[in-house]
Amino acid sequence: MCCMTTRCASEAPLRKNVNEALDLEGVEADIRVHLVDDEEAAEMGLRGSPSVFINGVELQPITTGGFA
Prior knowledge:
The chain is of the alpha+beta class.
């Protein structure tokens, strides 16, 4: 997960949801949070905060429509 600048308001609920999903599926995962500033986020092409990556691939890339 990437969160821009300081902790974003969505980070805690996202962590909870990810952990619950992993528990329900019986999956162990290495979850990392990387804080980035606005400039780094723009360079990475991040759509918003937090951004979620699975195996290095953004879960909701900027090219995905239908998301706010």
